Amino acid sequence: MDRRERPGLTPDHAVILPMPESLYKLLQDAATKHGGRIALVAGDHSMTYAELLYASDRAAAYLAGHGARPGRRVAFCFRKSTDAIVALFGLIRTGATYVPLDPAWPVERIRTLCRDAEISLWTGTDPPPAVPGIVASVTSKTKSEGGASLDSAAEIEPDGAPPQRPPDGVTNILYTSGSTGQPKGVEITERSLLHFSQWVVATFGLTAEDRVANHAPYNFDLSTLDIFAAVRAGATMYPVPERVKMFPYQLAEFIAEKKITTWYSVPSALIMLQLRGRLEVHDLSELRHVIFAGEVMPKSALQGLARRLPNAAFTNLYGPTETNVCTWHRIEERDLTSDEPIPIGRPIDDTRVWIVGEDGAEVGNGDSGELLVAGPTLTAGYFGDGSSTDHRLIPAPDGRGRAYRTGDRVSRGNDGVLMFHGRLDRMIKCRGHRIEPGEIEAVLCRHPNVKEAAVIPIPDPVFGNRIRACVAAHDDRSIQEPELASLCRNELPSCMLPDEWRLVDRLPRTDRGKVDYARLAAAETPNSPDGTERVRVGQSPADGD
Question: Domain residues for 243?
């Protein structure tokens, strides 16, 4: 069957479903329509929609008693679990803004984000020591000293109706890498999540019969499809355990055993499945939607997946965290057989896009420029950073509100389809994560012996890019790779850790005195007499050896 004829995908202009007035009403509606259906399966524990609503109502009352309310930002630090979903909807019911954190992150990074977001209430795993500003904590199962447990919420009766969050109110803050060396908190609105989940259900035809894998971590914007679109449809959510994510064969086995129908992840996870998951030995016939976003999908990997998963329709979604998803492209047979890159497609419903040159004027079809995006999924801005907000959110060219400057270079064909051509700045995409080299460089330069550092991407067929760190020491000092690696592990999440280290005498410069990143990327790595790997980048091509 031609992929364009496969069931479950609506035409390009989907019929939009009626929109509930709040995210919490999504859960209430699901409990009304599908109360007895399984909402969530995590390990050996499952909950129906009626049970999830009951538990979330009580969690909301309990969390409100510990300070969760509109205007408050609450740390949300959970591993994949039923408790996480209960607490998430509980926080949404209180009107508080939840800030997803990863329990695997270094303690110093968690402290930095809690300080930046002005967190006063912690939920999830036991909080690390000395987190600034925390005055109360509600943990998942463990009753930490001085804290409370979500287990106690079962004894609480909800009090009154949920607070009304305005449509542009901030539901969560997702931290992304920052070019200035500090992470940036992207404010995601209620309107954004309602519109996106509505578009997903209408476009992909999700129903209560679907089984949706929750693969992305909660601090990643991909997780919003796994949760809110699934609840809107009354589908069953299947959080993917961390131990399963790490092993492609077990991950393929998980998809087969749970009869997953809808999968959404970064391409690198799918590439590992295709390379090492032995898809041919698993019954994956229930999988009808394979959706990917976050980085470029290599054509060869997509072709391999399409051969192994003949029942599935493939879709490429595009959008920075600041826009959630703003364009989409349904994979057709011609995409699999041509040599052309995979398009990022056309705007989703009610989304407007422009491609502009350096002068801000729109470019013609076939010419590339920066992509601007406006629409209901747009961020409210960066928390506590008006300067960055004003720089990235500019007046829309059509005079209707604001548009986001993506920093991505794209072009539009005569058929209206958008193609991605790369970045206009130094940002790196690695394993689906957005990484600003400046944040890694800032950490490296905190080492007292480091004079300067430069971080560059090295193209990789699986992960999109690997990260190379080039570091020069002060003339009278020395540095060792283990010291630098330890420094990064203590302050950066695993996705930002350099894959390659290069100790250099000095960073090469262009004729204008700027770091020559192209020469760093192309540099050879001969061994020095003492066996240390050093890079010959300090000399110009005419200098000789």
Answer: 205-216+223-316
